[in-house]
Amino acid sequence: xxxxxxxxxxxxxxxxxxxxxxxxxxxxxxxxxxxxxxxxxxxxxxxxxxxxxxxxxxxxxxxxxxxxxxxxxxxxxxxxxxxxxxxxxxxxxxxxxxxxxxxxxxxxxxxxxxxxxxxxxxxxxxxxxxxxxxxxxxxxxxxxxxxxxxxxxxxxxxxxxxxxxxxxxxxxxxxxxxxxxxxxxxxxxxxxxxxxxxxxxxxxxxxxxxxxxxxxxxxxxxxxxxxxxxxxxxxxxxxxxxxxxxxxxxxxxxxxxxxxxxxxxxxxxxxxxxxxxxxxxxxxxxxxxxxxxxxxxxxxxxxxxxxxxxxxxxxxxxxxxxxxxxxxxxxxxxxxxxxxxxxxxxxxxxxxxxxxxxxxxxxxxxxxxxxxxxxxxxxxxxxxxxxxxxxxxxxxxxxxxxxxxxxxxxxxxxxxxxxxxxxxxxxxxxxxxxxxxxxxxxxxxxxxxxxxxxxxxxxxxxxxxxxxxxxxxxxxxxxxxxxxxxxxxxxxxxxxxxxxxxxxxxxxxxxxxxxxxxxxxxxxxxxxxxxxxxxxxxxxxxxxxxxxxxxxxxxxxxxxxxxxxxxxxxxxxxxxxxxxxxxxxxxxxxxxxxxxxxxxxxxxxxxxxxxxxxxxxxxxxxxxxxxxxxx
Length: 631
Description:
This protein is of the alpha/beta class. It folds into 5 domains: 24-94, Histidine-containing Protein, Chain: A, CATH 3.30.1340; 106-219, hypothetical protein tt1634, CATH 3.40.1520; 229-340, hypothetical protein tt1634, CATH 3.40.1520; 354-471, hypothetical protein tt1634; 480-630, CATH 3.30.1330.60. It is 39% helix and 25% strand. The chain contains 16 helices and 29 strands. The termini are far apart.
């Protein structure tokens, strides 16, 4: 009886154990399925369908290839939100990434009255120190702000040329911004005048490398024109503007259109400026030009609101009266018209005239008639003050009966003639005629303003001035090759010599330095290398050091003469490039020299030689020291 009860208890416990094992196994399976399904659904909803989910007991294993490390981490976070993060096993991989693309290199340089600031990202190969040093030379070390960052990537193509050109531009432009990219530079600047703008554009265009895209936007304030003047002439030679002023671009177009209707061919110049006497300026000008065209010839001159119209001699009186009367009635308020119909001169009458000629070499000859000895002395003195005492020859006659304002008209004409490179002046009782050639594109307008102001209302004058680019001091600047040739010509006559065994320029060479400095000031910002060379006496290392010091001395002398040296470098070559035999004293003297060479993209054979020194190298041995004393 007792045995049966024990057997029943054992069987009961056994059955319970079996039931527990079955229940536990079922629970594990249920947890696995729920965990796997829950994590998979969550990943699918998050768009991570690439992830593979497998449950192993209480653990959830994530596999698959994630696009990025960030996506892999997000998959882990998503799975951890569905089950205990400790149960998540990460067996995911990350897709291999392509090489990181290099950054976009760019820089902005800003220069104003406060100094220079530079900001941007540049390649590590770009020398920031050189750029900052160059800016420091321009504005001083306390006024340079360096906000550059660098990245260790190769410099893109044409980056170095673009960056170097931006540095050159900042030296030329006192108020400007330069935006630099590889192969491209955009410059926005402000000039003090139209002439400064033209000079800036000419210098920068000359310095632009051929492979570089440069956009220049240089603004210049409109000039103040005093008096606000215009002169239009129509005769047998055709129609032309001796001077043309407008207050707006629309006014300029309207005035030039009137000139074209009257017979002007080609491109006419009209300056937009400030100082107009009336907003109806262009209307008055157009009406006056149309009147001259209807008269079939003559001139019309504006000096502020005063208008002088002179018809051609022989114009029919009735026609003249009708056209002038109509013009007077139609002119806008403020403008005052004075009209004149000259009489036909008797060709047999003797000329009352004063003549002056200015040659291309600057020689001036005064001929014709003057009122008295005092007038002749005054004209002679005035001409000598304007053109130089040695350049003036006076051969004018003294006659009676000349107009009372004859001498002031002569002096005014001489002042107008001085604005030309060459030409002639003719003063008659009725008119002043100035003809010639000039390199100033505004000379005709300036002479018109002068004659209008000095001769008074109603005066007649004729201006025939031709502008030549070759005479223009801006466009006529020498090219780098011409500069090199000019320096070479100076060095053929003189040498830059040094005190024996030192880098101190000898006093006898200072005249040569002055001449070279004068050439370089005209040449502007050209890439130039100043090279130092020695003979072969002494140690090679000492020769190299001495040649470097001497080249730097020449560079410093140019700076002392206010030459812009931002694009210059000084380099010593020692004894390695002789041009003569070092066995003779003459050969050693030739080898001790300074050379000026343009820095070119490709080496060139021709170099500028400059004579150098009287001394070469110092040496530590007694024999070498003796040799250096000879140099």
